[in-house]
């Protein structure tokens, strides 16, 4: 059976001795046969489950439910009080901020220390060192400084970069990606999605969107016990019910409105004069952002315009805007397709479109040396607080069969510092909201 599983957990428990006063520890040691001077706290209580190779398992639970303790036992940094935990393969773990790092060692020394603890030889670390530093994005002047001088974001970036290079079979991540800038979080998410193709991931988070997006299975813990082992959707629903209580929702029949006229949400006048206004800061176009493609076409500018075609560095959710993409081609294009994707910090695509359908039956050709501009005009949605990444892509061909000339992952970063109440991944302007009394 072991060959089919990455992790096998059988009746595992972790019990801590709790002493009211320090002296009670000595009393228990020397006078324990005459009485008990301690109480016991069970952090993990008789849990059993197996994780198949290639699974992406999310672990949910309120604070104190035993999530971190369970992960530490899987990673062998903590010994169980009872039961057995078998792990098949190399484990790389990012359990908490700076775990495995010595604050008095330099960044370079910690890279070698941490990578060695994760199973790499000195020669393997030598070969991967430059790639580790490049992936982390830690400024060169900090690499020779002690870790204690680093910001929390720099520590996580360096730690994640190490575990991304140890060729692990099992990756364990515990809330660590909540720290870090938008560019690095997007890079981490791309690595995780690539790792999912062959490796096993155990992912702990309070972010239910992350569990739904990344995982194919989820486990719910409560007070040290396993409550539910099921699909992410089922586990998230049960977890939210625990947090907020059961909510009975009446079924509401939706009627289609055949009206293409643009409209303004009547609440916006109030919202935009309050602290609920959906303020969105827009970064400048990052020409050095990572991406891929065969080349031949270069995206030279990406900006967001207002309804007067003026570039914006800041907008408010619900306003009418245009995403403007300027390109220059060094090859002939006979069927260009320009598109965009807006992703949240987890790499989930929450808004995307391209030009294909609009121009599929129209002649649109460009010659080498031509410059051209594409605009996507729409009313921008309201978004929850956080950082978002706008990616841009340029291809040639059809929707099903095309050549990708350039894809830029993080052309713009949008930062939401305040938000009206958004109940989903995005909010849209409401034309009207009514409540009417119905007669019997």
From TrEMBL:
<dbReference type="GO" id="GO:0016887">
    <property type="term" value="F:ATP hydrolysis activity"/>
</dbReference>
<dbReference type="InterPro" id="IPR027417">
    <property type="entry name" value="P-loop_NTPase"/>
</dbReference>
<dbReference type="GO" id="GO:0005524">
    <property type="term" value="F:ATP binding"/>
</dbReference>
<dbReference type="Pfam" id="PF14524">
    <property type="entry name" value="Wzt_C"/>
</dbReference>
<protein>
    <submittedName>
        <fullName>ABC transporter ATP-binding protein</fullName>
    </submittedName>
</protein>
<dbReference type="InterPro" id="IPR050683">
    <property type="entry name" value="Bact_Polysacc_Export_ATP-bd"/>
</dbReference>
<keyword id="KW-0067">ATP-binding</keyword>
<dbReference type="InterPro" id="IPR003593">
    <property type="entry name" value="AAA+_ATPase"/>
</dbReference>
<keyword id="KW-0547">Nucleotide-binding</keyword>
<dbReference type="GO" id="GO:0140359">
    <property type="term" value="F:ABC-type transporter activity"/>
</dbReference>
<dbReference type="InterPro" id="IPR003439">
    <property type="entry name" value="ABC_transporter-like_ATP-bd"/>
</dbReference>
<feature type="domain" description="ABC transporter">
    <location>
        <begin position="7"/>
        <end position="248"/>
    </location>
</feature>
<comment type="similarity">
    <text>Belongs to the ABC transporter superfamily.</text>
</comment>
<dbReference type="GO" id="GO:0016020">
    <property type="term" value="C:membrane"/>
</dbReference>
<dbReference type="InterPro" id="IPR029439">
    <property type="entry name" value="Wzt_C"/>
</dbReference>
<keyword id="KW-0813">Transport</keyword>
<dbReference type="Pfam" id="PF00005">
    <property type="entry name" value="ABC_tran"/>
</dbReference>
<dbReference type="InterPro" id="IPR015860">
    <property type="entry name" value="ABC_transpr_TagH-like"/>
</dbReference>
């Amino acid at each position: 059976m072991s060959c089919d599983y990455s992790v096998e957990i059988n009746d595992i428990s972790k019990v801590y001795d709790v002493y009211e006063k320090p002296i009670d520890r000595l009393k228990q040691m020397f006078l324990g046969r005459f009485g008990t001077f301690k109480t016991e706290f069970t952090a993990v209580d008789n849990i059993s489950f197996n994780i198949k190779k290639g699974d992406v398992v999310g672990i949910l639970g309120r604070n104190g439910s035993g999530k971190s303790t369970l992960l530490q036992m899987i990673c062998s940094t903590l010994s169980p009080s009872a039961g057995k935990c078998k792990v098949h393969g190399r484990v790389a773990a990012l359990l908490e901020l700076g775990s495995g790092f010595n604050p008095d060692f330099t960044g370079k020394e910690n890279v070698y220390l941490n990578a060695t603890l994760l199973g790499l030889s000195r020669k393997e670390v030598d070969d991967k060192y430059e790639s580790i530093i490049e992936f982390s994005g830690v400024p060169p002047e900090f690499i020779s400084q002690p870790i204690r001088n680093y910001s929390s974001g720099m520590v996580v970036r360096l730690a994640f970069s190490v575990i991304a290079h140890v060729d692990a079979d099992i990756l364990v991540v515990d809330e660590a990606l909540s720290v870090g800038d938008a560019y690095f979080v997007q890079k981490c998410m791309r690595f995780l999605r690539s790792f999912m193709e062959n490796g096993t991931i155990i992912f702990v988070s309070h972010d239910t969107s992350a569990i739904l997006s990344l995982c194919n299975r989820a486990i719910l813990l409560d007070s040290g016990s396993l409550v539910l082992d099921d699909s992410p959707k089922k586990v998230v629903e049960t977890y939210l019910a625990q947090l907020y209580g059961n909510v009975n929702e009446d079924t509401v029949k939706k009627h289609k409105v055949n009206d293409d006229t643009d409209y303004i949400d009547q609440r916006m006048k109030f919202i935009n004069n309050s602290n609920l206004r959906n303020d969105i800061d827009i970064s400048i176009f990052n020409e050095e952002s990572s991406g891929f493609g065969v080349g031949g076409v270069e995206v030279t500018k990406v900006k967001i315009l207002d309804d007067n075609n003026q570039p914006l560095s800041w907008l408010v959710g619900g306003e009418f805007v245009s995403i403007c993409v300027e390109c220059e081609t060094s090859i002939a294009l006979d069927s260009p397709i320009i598109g965009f994707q807006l992703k949240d910090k987890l790499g989930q695509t929450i808004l995307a479109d391209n030009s294909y359908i609009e121009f599929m039956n129209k002649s649109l050709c460009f010659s080498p040396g031509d410059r051209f501009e594409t605009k996507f005009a729409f009313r921008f949605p309201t978004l929850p607080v956080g950082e978002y990444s706008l990616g841009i892509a340029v291809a040639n061909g059809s929707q099903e069969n095309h050549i990708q000339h350039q894809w830029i992952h993080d052309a713009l970063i949008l930062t939401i510092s305040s938000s009206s109440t958004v109940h989903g991944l995005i909010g849209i302007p409401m034309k009207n909201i009514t409540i009417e009394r119905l007669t019997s």
